[in-house]
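Data availability (excerpt). The following record was deposited with the supplementary files.
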Amino acid sequence: MATLRTSLPATVQACRTGGKKPLRVKATRPVPSGLSNFRPEFKPASAELRFSRQSRSVCQERNQRRAGLTPLNAVADDSESAAEPKASDEKDVTLYERPGVEVPDDIESKDALFKALGASGVLMLILGVWNQDFVSEHESLCMIAVFLLGYAGIIFEETVAWNKSGIAMIMAVLLWTIYALGAPDTTLVTGELSEHLSDVSEIVFFLIGAMTIVETVDSHRGFKVVTDVINTRDSLTLLGIIGGITFFMSAALDNLTTTIVMISLLRKFIPNDPKKRMFFGGAVVIAANAGGAWSPIGDVTTTMLWINGQITALNTVSDLILPSAVSMIVSFGAMALFVEEAKGDTGGQSEEADLDFAPGGKLMFYSGVSSLLFVPIFKSATHLPPYLGMLCSLGYMWLLTDSLHYGKPGRDKLRVPHNLTRIDTTGVMFFLGILLSIASLESVGVLKNVAVWLSDTVPSTELVAGAIGVASAIIDNVPLVAATMGMYDLSEWPADSELWQLIAYCAGTGGSILIIGSAAGVAFMGMEKAEFGWYVKKITPWAFLGYVAGIGAYVGQGAVTSFFATIPAAVDVVPQIQSAVHMLPGQ
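Predicted structure:
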């Protein structure tokens, strides 16, 4: 084994230390055999690793671009003018500056320290005030307090800088712990927890499968099939095309994925006008949420209702597609009439060359969409849980990518295993935590009491569902719908009743009223840097108008259906009336 000793040239050392006394760095470490082919080359102890000649200004500019513990990469070369080290060489031999000479900002960041102490302080405070006797006697009160506190943390996650997934998981554990402390027998609590976990797991597995399939299609650039049909410079025409594609794509995929895809496409169609592109992005949010409301796989809330048996696939599509379409058309029509950005020319598409399909791109697009549409067919045919159909579709896509890319170098990123790493796992963990939290409130009876209070206070089903939809614009619609599922019993409100269908519609489209009301809106906010106030001014009035119009369309549709349903009964009564008339005196 040879040893490596390095000495840094004085010029580079002075640059690294800001002109102070240069730091002499000597490193002695064993060098494994067989590495002589890599750069830098390892030589006996007498050899030096010489750096390429750089001026002080160049070195300082490099330091400004680097943050934290930046490695000084040595490049061995027999000539004085060695080539710049490659990215692949930087990881072979690195010499880090000693702490105390130049401490990185991220290590001594007080902000990070305060956040860590704050998180620990919250947990210590909970343990410090924990009193088992008090918790046991005031079980419901303590659980409501913990839920409201955790929910506040979820709403203001950007302010407190804590991810909502972590908050939801801690909240779920605390709620079930309080429930167990107040129960006479923890075995009963464990049984209820296992039962609820079974239901929640169905949703989690469903989401993991759906997101992986969509990521697989996206990695093959399969959505280019959709983008190739859009070719116009007129703003109104583009608005209609974007709205129609988003509406139906959201129903087949989901509103979040569709929003991400369409916002990315808008950067190609409207590259030079940020204000117009931002307006079109707001329209995409409306169309995506409206499209997801009438499909059992188009929105997380409708998926939850479908999996738990509150709605069925065929009736949801047939009864909600018209109200959802009315909601989008009314919103888009109003924006076309009164919003300046909806008029004029788009300025043309981006001049950047379009990326072609990845190998098998078209095949993966049609296969992915077919796999997602297979799920409701599977459930209807077998009466098995939808997540089994989704897992079957994921397995098919997995085998398809393995067969398509087997033995082809550089295609590992197109396979399902890599796409599994790209899905939003934090979102999945959030759903797990929030659904388990809601399940604990259902088990203790809190949600049932809320349902009784709502029924006594607001007897109208339309008003209850409408209020839930407006509330979903302010807070997350997932816990709202989850709570509603525990508030109303299926024995009293059977599947596909007016309440469940209105909740599916209102929770989906109501999220468009505010930018923070849906996952699609939050994604749009992050991608286009849209502000809350701008959305309220430019999008909220038209989204709310469409939301109310959709409710009206659903109620009107029900009235028309009921009217035509009474016609056969009225026809059957006609002979009886005629007989009664003939029996009258004088006839």
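Summary of structural features: Residues 1-29, 31-59, 66-103 have pLDDT under 50 and may be disordered.
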